[in-house]
Design goal:
Elements lengths: L5 E2 L6 H4 L4 E11 L5 E11 L3 E5 L6 H9 L6 E6 L2 E2 L5 H8 L2 E4 L11 H11 L4 H14 L15 H13 L5 E5 L7 H16 L3 E5 L3 H4 L2 E2 L1 E6 L2 E5 L1
Parallel strand pairs: 1-10, 4-9, 4-11, 7-8, 8-9
Antiparallel strand pairs: 2-3, 2-5, 5-6, 11-12
Helix pairs in contact: 4-5, 4-6
Length: about 240
């Protein structure tokens, strides 16, 4: 369980900051739907390897939209986005899919498939990549044990509790060994005790080298960790280191 005032140092020890690489960069990015006003505007920020940041703001501020822009399932109206050092505008469409494989995503609604077991849900990204089970079976089992689901790997999602489903969704995102993990309100459907346990899981993952962007409106949860805060308000992004 997460204790009060855990200091992640934004996921970057002092001696590692100089060697951090830029995973995501937004330069003067704006987004509007149709001919309406911009809902996100003048976004300028970067996300570095090994970093940990919260993305917060009121409901409807655009947190999920910003995550979709990072993941490139949504295109900006203006400005420039770079992923892993490459301007997205210069990247072939087929290569965008390759870059997305370096990004894990955890959705608030889990998106587990009921006709598959927990093990099969977690292994699904590797199946989609065409990998043979013999090449990943031990890795999936080890990961399920790491998130505390070693004894639940052969049951379908409807048997799992809400917290277990969330941990399965996290494991599925991690199985591709992402350089960057985007978590969209991952603690929104669980009680405060479980939210702390999930936060501990993200902190431990960050300490293994994965950069984390955790979208949440839970101020009490954020107060447990000393980490960078990216606050969306009225279409603008304010960053507090």
């Amino acid at each position: 369980m997460v204790e009060d005032n855990i200091d992640t140092a934004s996921g970057l020890p002092d001696d590692a900051q100089a060697g951090a690489t830029e995973l995501v960069r937004f330069d003067n990015v704006g987004l509007r739907y149709g001919i309406g006003p911009e809902i996100l505007r003048d976004l300028d920020f970067s996300i570095h390897s090994h970093s940990f940041q919260f993305l917060t703001g009121p409901s409807g501020a655009g947190k999920t939209t910003l995550l979709r822009l990072i993941l490139q399932t949504l295109k900006p109206t203006r400005g420039r986005i770079s992923l892993f050092g490459q301007p997205v505008a210069d990247i072939q469409k087929s290569d965008i899919a390759r870059l997305r494989r370096r990004i894990g995503i955890v959705f608030q609604d889990f998106r587990l498939l009921d006709h598959l077991t927990t093990y099969e849900n977690v292994a699904l990204p590797l199946v989609v990549q065409g990998k043979e089970e013999a090449s990943y079976r031990n890795e999936v089992i080890e990961l399920l044990r790491w998130v505390g689901l070693g004894d639940r790997m052969h049951v379908p999602p409807m048997i799992l509790s809400g917290g277990e489903k969330q941990r399965a969704a996290i494991a599925r995102a991690l199985i591709v060994q992402p350089a960057l993990l985007l978590a969209d309100e991952p603690t929104g459907n669980v009680d405060p005790s479980l939210a702390r346990r999930l936060l501990r899981l993200f902190i431990e993952l960050n300490h293994t080298g994965t950069a984390i962007v955790l979208a949440t409106h839970d101020l009490q949860l954020m107060d447990l960790v000393e980490a960078r805060r990216m606050v969306l308000a009225e279409g603008h992004l304010h960053i507090y280191e």
